[in-house]
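ok here's Peptidase:
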Amino acid sequence: MSAPTNKPHEVVERALELSRADGCVVIADEQSTANLRWAGNALTTNGVTRTRTLTVIATVDGKEGTASGVVSRAAVTADELEPLVRAAEAAARGAGPAEDARPLVTDVPAAPDFTDAPAETSSAVFADFAPTLGEAFARARAGGRELYGFANHELVSTYMGTSTGLRLRHDQPNGTLELNAKSPDRTRSAWAGRSTRDFKDVDPAALDAELAVRLGWAERRVELPAGRYETLLPPTAVADLLIYQMWSASGRDAAEGRTVFSQPGGGTRVGEKLTDLPLTLRSDPNEPGLESAPFVLVHSSGGDQSVFDNGLPLTATDWVRQGELSNLLTSRHSADLTGLPVAPGIDNLILDGGEDRSLEEMVASTTRGLLLTCLWYIREVDPATLLLTGLTRDGVYLVENGEVVGEVNNFRFNESPVDLLGRATEAGRTEKTLPREWSDWFTRAAMPALRVPDFNMSSVSQGV
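and the structure:
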């Protein structure tokens, strides 16, 4: 067996040379990861990994239209490269015409670093973070609490080449930190998480101090029944809800009358006011600190994404502008079907337009309400209204007269993020946040806290 080809751009070029299809897109993903894990105030594991995945997309023209075939494999050797290309071509020949077929993208300037070596992470990314984490362990131990969690950093260098001449590259760093503090008897638990590009802007000592305060709040327990409560949703919870909303914002599905964004009687709700607050929900591949791929990068077609759009430049897009629905997700194909502008998905999400107030300031102006930590196990109940259900986790706190007076039981909730935006009475300061539920798939988000006067806690949950 031959050794793997060392240079990813050469693999892309060779696969394109081998192609006999009418069109070809080759994507090489070079991924490196480094991680730390800890439990009970002590490191447990650490590791570094390297992987390469090669995706070949072949397009074949026929009398009835153009078909596409996609094959992805990891750790492809030089001897395995031609069989991979042939497998993609065979998949295309065996498929029917692709509904989303469009000419492959052309006329995008080549990346100047296309032939450079891939970027890599290593354990060195934790050089400053790890000693501070050790200090946090010592303080937690002295304070009678236990810290659990993990830190993960990955760097993916993606090389894309096409038979139409595109030569693009994107390096995507992605780091997550999740820290959980528990009382020794495990009856009290608090969570905090952060998203980072390089672990230079996260402070485990500050997170531990935050969690110590929350565990202190939980020393007093208050049992509350299900019902509707004024609720402060922190940025992480807002991110989890609005990311799901974005994933559900298909232009085609809306035009076909299947979603919350469908207009009764036909068409979409684009142009409709969703909230009286001057909020803008947007994505921008060049957002500072949340940078993402500036071109379409997809490995398979489905919904409102198309392999034929690979390489299409992405620009800043407002999904909701000043409270008004302004765009829905579309590929070139679904834009043609619906008459909506072309608006592919972008790998970050920002909600801004709120007041310059911190969550602590919003708590201080609350007469009586609930303060959440985070949401989890979020599932869709009704796509027509985007009704979601899920659970609260790791701390729900009762606020009275501007102060947190204790921890209450957890709840199951039933809410639609679209309805929540319409009912929210206050949005705070936008800040980078880590969505807890979706952190394995989506990490680049910036959100404000939201005040909702009647958040629906549909039943009591026994979870911690």
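+1. The chain is about 20% helix and 40% strand.
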